Amino acid sequence: MNAVRQPSPASAMPLTLPRLSGAVPRTVVPGVLAAANTRIARFLIDADVFGAADIPESWDDSLRACEQAIAACIRREIGPLHCLRPGFGMHVLDADGFPIGGYSVGRASDKPRVYTAVEVYWGETSEQAWPVGQRLQALEAALPGLGRTVLQALREGCAQVYPLFTPDIACDVASMIYWCGEENEEIALDMNCGDDEKEREAMRCDMLTRAELDETYPEWVRQWMGQTAKKRPGRCSLRRAVKTLTDPGLRQIAADALSLSRLQCDDTFRPEIEGEYVGFGAVLSWEDGDLTTRIYDDLLQLAHQSEFCERMGEFTIALNDPGALGAWVRAMRPRFRAIGLIDRLIHQLAA
């Protein structure tokens, strides 16, 4: 019988890896940059926008710590959310408007960088698809025109605040990327296949067609009602709906849509858009897994081949005006309220 080999005391000892002290930063910020960031952090603290509870317990870079504090302050202003995940970021601009640490075409490398402003920007961090067709149809059945009116209030309310990829936008995008900007696929088939019926049929089978789009969405979902539509019989009074609906869930949807329609939000903080705009906060599909997500994914793929914009808003704050940051937060409060209502409407419609 072979004896069982016993491990030597040395081999029995566990391997211990060296550890860095918690006081050692995870990233190293150059001294000059760290000093500048500290001055900017002092500017942001003097603006008196966020409190001590918003500042993270530890940080490597004072500027990033202030960024996290501002984001925490804004999340508190917006309140709890179910569907949307807004993110707020910040970077510093030099005298020529270039982000510090970014690309500066034509700039001499030995020229000192002067910090002159802070740019705050925001957008969705994790857009998702939410099927809203069933509840919109329930609204339409409860009160004729209510489903389309709620959808219109959501479209108008989100346009300047938190853009959503809605079915009417999906139809416009489908026209642009599949049909050469036309109402259906016929022109695209003419350009690619001419009169060859076999080629036309093969291409038609591989592409999204007008018929498929019409089958996916009801007509009233595909169209933007527009301002003149307020006089059309298809539009329903949200105020009357709140008073007459007996279903508490549908009544709450109508009430939130009414509240959203009463908020006044302009395009003051609209970002500069270069290239395709893809800064959508959510995808509102009619049914789970329908054509809406396919169209949206194709738009993203096309946009990322060139320039695109995925910001929802941006604002520049001069470093000689600390009161501007607080003024921006106050100006954003109607938008924060709108984001909460948009989120609640999506959550209720997708339930």
UniProtKB/TrEMBL annotation:
Protein name: PRTRC system protein F
Lineage: Bacteria, Pseudomonadati, Pseudomonadota, Betaproteobacteria, Burkholderiales
NCBIfam families: PRTRC_F
Pfam family, one: alpha-hel2
Superkingdom, natural source: Bacteria
